[in-house]
Amino acid sequence: METGIDKLIQSVKEELQISYAFSDTCCIYKVPERLRELNEKAYTPRLVSIGPIHHCNDKLKAMEDHKRMYLQEFIARSGVSVEGFIEYIKENETRLRNCYAETIAFSSEYFIKMILMDAAFVIMLLLKWTYTDFRGSRDSIFYPPYKSIDVRVDICLLENQLPFFILDELSRLSTIIGNSPKATLIELTHWFFSCEWGPWAVWENLGSIEISEVKHLVDFLTIYHRPTEQQPIEELEVLTAPSVKDLHQAGVKFVLSSRKNLLDIKFDRNKGRLEIPRLKLDGRTEIIIRNMQAFEQCHGLKHGYVGDYICLMGLFLGASKDVEILVENRIVDNCLPSNEEVVQLFYNLNKQNSVWSGTFLFKGLIKDLNAFCERPWNKWKANLKQNYFNTPWAVLSVAGAVILLILTVIQSVCSILQVV
């Protein structure tokens, strides 16, 4: 007869057999509350759930029928039986579960069904986004009432992710991507991002992306913006930099960079040229930046490039005038209602932002900028040019003042000679 202690022992043993997500493959997280409370909407899907974290949200249940429609089409086009897909997911169930930081309470049967439906949905969405002949006339994502705006944002949220490997393996198993059209999952993902996020999808870096290193769609976005050059190792005493207005007054010239990678900000100390890649800001920009920032913090990446960029832009853009200067130089493409909203955007993003001075990506840059601004000659020259040489009348005024000064000196010297 089993005693109470025997039941307790058996219960503990069963608990220990559960594979909790403290594995090396863990990469999908619930956003920490300290970030979530800053902007709840930036991390919460509005229309569709992908993966287990928001699967039980009643507000998102309406899209389940849409997922079934996409799954039917996925299977019909792939030539692979449902059993084949289910068997593969079953074989990789532990690996899939270990990708999530939260313990998933779903049964094996329910979990496998959810993964299959959600993966088919994402794959078909990427195909339909690029190739219009994949779209059906009943598809409300691409036809009235046009749910595409919310869907394309929802699948870029950190809590709304599937491991990229399952998307890749199921698409390979189905051959739906390899047969028609002949495009890789990497290319389809890029085309989706470039259509939706424009400057955030850097085509030049596409060739360097290995499909095996992509953890999920949010990670895909961060990989785009890895710096092309390693920064020198040096100490940084104070993490501060002049604002754009201060740099302008010190004589720094702002130039739109030909580079697309947002992190490729370069300063030529000799010419006083600061080259910055174009930054487009609209109503959805904050969502994308926040989810990349959250992934970076949760995953404990060695270098927080997104956080470093947020910090730098916060230092640069402290007032509306700073934004105005970058807009005038075509560096900032501002689709927000005002320049003040850009300032507020980076101010808010810098709350709970994680930055370490020892690994700060732009420490060499701000060190050079601070040194440039501290030189009196640079400030004097810039002030003379900006305040006295900016109009023909100002030039004549300065010239007249110089001539008057020279005549005054000559007159003084003559007076002294006469006395002598």
Automatic annotation (TrEMBL):
Keywords: Membrane, Transmembrane, Transmembrane helix. InterPro entries: DUF247_pln. The chain crosses the membrane at residues 393-417. It holds the Pfam family DUF247. This is Uncharacterized protein.
